[in-house]
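B., you asked whether I could sanity-check this one before it goes into the benchmark set. Here's the sequence:
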Amino acid sequence: MAIIYALMSMFFWGLALFLAAIASRKIGNILTLFWMQIFGFAIGSIYLLFSPNLASFNLLPPFIPVLFVVALLQAIGALAYYKGMVKGQVSLVSPLGASYGLITAILSIIFLKEILRLNQLVAILFIIFGMITISLNLKDLIKNKSIQLLTGTKEGIIAMLGWGVSLFLLIFPSKELGWFLPSIFFRFLIILFLLIYILYSKISFLPKTQKLPFKLLVFIGLFDILAFFSYSLGVSQGYGSIVGPVSSASTLVTIFLGLIFLKEKLGVRKIIGVAAIVGGLVLISI
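And here's what the prediction gave me:
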């Protein structure tokens, strides 16, 4: 059953991240993250009112420090990812951010003593190769012997690290508190972080040049919270080293939508890099 939940999170995250790329290009990464979190939390709260998870709140306090870190890393990763989507191509930033499965798998193997099999080792090498291939400007490297990262690469790597570590940490409260409570609580913390930042920075809560894309943000929030619920269900029942990489294959959905609706083009180098990352993500989950 864990693999089914992992596939569900892959699909929902792919949709959410693609729509977030569109919203970020309209109203910026901060407002996109803030409002999609608001709508996602509101949707989740409706379920909370009718769920038995209310009884688990007395078990929450010991996990608040962990969930605080999860929320902080999630916010940093998402803001970097959305910013990268504004600056660079979806087909570049998406596979880099989606490589968080590599981080989650490695941490699960080290700290949870999950055994690293040969196919997982090969998969890690595939992902690293793919990341280097799509991230570096190889022409400048050959011509000028200087390393120059393509636009959006830094943001994609920050997202990968932030999401990878945070989703690993989310395994612990999910196994003890169940699939729902950790996801809804750290989302509440993200909203608090962003609220404090927006007030401190004196940023307007609404875009100045256009209307708030209400429907778009609602769907982003819905798909995102469904992805987290699916992920939490998966890691509460199975191995993080499997659920994490499978869910991160959401880049397939995001890239596919980017090619169709944003008319992005993939050169040979990017095709090879994306194929290596996707192949690694698939291989690591077998």
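One thing to flag: The CA atoms of residues 120 and 284 lie 4 Å apart. Otherwise nothing jumped out at me.
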